[in-house]
Task: structure prediction
Amino acid sequence: MNQRQELKKKLEEIDQKILETEKLLPAHSVKPPIMQEIFALEDEREAILAQLKELEGK
Result:
């Protein structure tokens, strides 16, 4: 598997984790640890997107 495919697979996994974590959020009172996890996953997602963009530019 090449680097681009690996990054895309990891991106799909992170997107799925974000969706699963968002389901844990209560409707009215946001839990800080859950939000921190979502923010960390979103940061990781952005880093992977940047790597993919860099690979496509080559």
Notes: The chain has a mean pLDDT of 91.
